[in-house]
Every structure is written in structure tokens, then in C-alpha cells.
Amino acid sequence: MVPFEQRRDRWSPAFGRRRGGVRDRPHRPGSGARADAGEPRILGFDGLRALAFLMVFVSHKAPSPRTEALGSAGVWLFFVLSGFLIVRILAAARARIEAGTAMPLDSLQVFYRNRFARIVPVYYAFLFVLYATPLGGPLDLGDAGFKRATWLYLTNLYIERHGWGTELGHLWSLAVEQQFYLLFAPAALFLPRRHLGALCGALIGASVLMHVVLWSAGAWLVSFDVDTLANLGLIALGGLAGLRTKPLAAWLRHDAALIAVLVPFLALPLLAGETGLWLVVGRLSGGLAALLLLQIVQCPESRTVAILDSPWLRRIGVISYAAYLFHVPLHAEPVLAALGLPFAGPRAVTLALDLALTLLLAEASWRLLESPARRLLRAPRRPARERALVNPL
Fold it and tell me: Which end of the chain has fewer CB atoms at under 10 Å, N or C?
């Protein structure tokens, strides 16, 4: 994607950082820089990841119709945020292809290698620990078919057919993400870049159509929750936001406007959760999430972004992938009992202990597994190639 030409009062969707003579915040190890894209960390985005994780965490640890709707909105926020970043990465790669400095197959290999380095090692380590060691013994991990589905990133398809019933049902969303990478990345890198927005629009249309089909067929709510096409539209919606090169209207680029979008996004699932229709129509709130991302990118000096970029929220966002993986089967009470520290307290206290234990384990995972895996496995940065004699596409 070609960066929007910025002046002091303009913004850059390709970088999402301070401009106009204000120096960018220096990168520190572990600060969540977009290493896959080779671009600086976008202020506030790690805080949004933290917010999305906490929404999901509450839905699983204190389940009720309202909190479950809130958790669904948290997963959707993850999807929109992922689409925003991934489509920008692919757009930038396609721009290099069209400039003659890269080839489609090489770019696809780099993309998949970087995604593998970020996602797969800790995921498979997590499954191995639960499936092959005594630590998974007390948990309901599903039957052999479900376990095969988790290894192959097909969890959502299994759940759509057979229902929930295990403590690893939350892995469905990671399966949807991987399916998006497999379907979308080749099309994005082999088609002309000018078609990328239309490709995102087609996915959104297919998602809307799938909702209509599921509703007409009388499908159960599980299908609305985990169906691949029903969710790909959210990722594509984030992608459309990431491709936007025009600044928002001035009235949308200040703190009051940010809060006016964030608060309804958080409140709507709590208000609509009791109706039972949130999974059917709630994805419309993805539009609020996409708008919120654009506002954050274009208002990096706002108080709202400063709060989202506070150190503790930022750190939760950095380790949120492992925290999301671990949080459902991780319970503080049996862990403390195994350590000879039996504890039985109010639900609020055990909830806080579960959160603390999840974040502690996620931090260890980041330091001992995820960061080393990324350094070892991600594609090395290559110097720009000479312009090809024939434009590859």
C-alpha cells in the first residue's frame, strides 16, 4: 500500500505513528512491533488486544448470556484487528511485487513463514502438553476426532457439526484465522493490488450471505458463532479499514469521538446478550471496531490512545495470544492445591487468581518460547531486489 502523503495535520495509514516533527517512540524488545510487516508498533493496538482478551476471559470464567455476548465481541475485535494488520502486510508485499522488487511465490513463502513463526510453535506446544502429559488428565479435552481437528486447525468445522463439549472449544477462532491466511494470502499476492479492496468487499458480502443462508436453514446458534464464512467478513472488514488512505472527518478524530465509538461497542453486547440474537446480528458491531481502529491510527496523541498504550495494558496485549490459548483450561485452585496451598474463596478472588496465573504463564511463554521461535523461524529481511526486466504480474 502506498503511504498517504502526510503533512503536519495529516496521518499515515502505512505507519500509524506520530508525524509532523514529533519523534516516534523508540522500540524496545518485547514492545510488540509488527515484525512481520517491518513497520513500527501502532500506538494503542496492543491495548485493544488486551481489551479483547479481557472480554473473552470474563466470558469464559464468569459465563452468563451477557458476558458470553461480550466475549463474542472480544473475538470479533481480534478478527477486525487481525484483518487490519494482515491485509496491510499483504498490500505492502503486493506493492513490492508490482514494483518489480519481489516475486509472488517468494512473498507468499515469507508471509507464511512469518505467520508460522508467530502462531504455530506455542500452539502446538500447548496441545502437546495437554494431550501427551499428565497435566491434561483432569480436563475434558474432547474425543479423538476433536483432537485431530485441533492439530489441523479445523476446530471450528468440528464444533459446527458436533457442538462444544470440551475445554478447548475456544481454539475455533484460531482455526478461522489460519483458514483466512490460506484462502486470502495467495489471492492478495497474485492479483493486482487495485483489486485488494474488492476482494475484501467480496468476503464481506459472502459473510452477509452466509448469515442469510444459516438463518433461512434454521441453523443452530453454534453455526452462527463458528462458521468460517460468517467470520471471514469481520477480518475482511478490518482489511478494508487498513487499506483506507483518506483521513476521517475532523469530527471523528478527537477523544470524544473515540469514546463515542468505544463505549457502544462494549455496551451493545451487554444490552443485547439476553435476547439470544447477538450471534445473528451482533457482527454488525464490527463496523464500530473498524472505525475505532481508524480513529486510533489517526489520533495517536489522544488521551484515549495514551490509556490504551499504558504499560500494563500494552504488556497484556503483547502476550495476549498465549493468554488466549491458556486461559480456559487454566484454573488457579487446582494449581494451588497441587503446590500444597489449598484455597477456596469468593468467585471474584478466584477469577483474579485465574487471570494472574494466565498472564504469568503467558509472560513465560513469550520470553521462553514465542520470542525465541520468532527470532529463529521468521524469514530474514532481504535487501530489495533489482527491478525485474518483466513485471511479474
Answer: C
DSSP for 44-87 reads: THHHHHHHHHHHHHHHHHS--HHHHHHHHHHHHHHHHHHHHHHH
d(CA 302, CA 309): 11
Helix axes 65-98, 255-272, angle to 10 degrees: 130
Q: Specify the amino acid at residue 297.
A: V
CB burial class (10 A; 0-12, 13-18, 19+) of residue 33?
middle
CA distance 85 to 195: 18
The whole-angstrom separation of Cα 285 and Cα 278 is: 10
Q: How far apart are the first and last CA of the chain?
A: 16
Contact criterion met (CB below 8 Å) for 343 and 332: yes
pTM for the full model? 0.87
Query: For residue 316, which amino acid is it?
Result: I
Burial class of residue 309 in the structure, from the number of CB atoms within 10 Å of its CB (0-12 exposed, 13-18 middle, 19+ buried): buried
How do residues 17-31 score in pLDDT, each as one tens digit?
Answer: 333 333 334 333 333
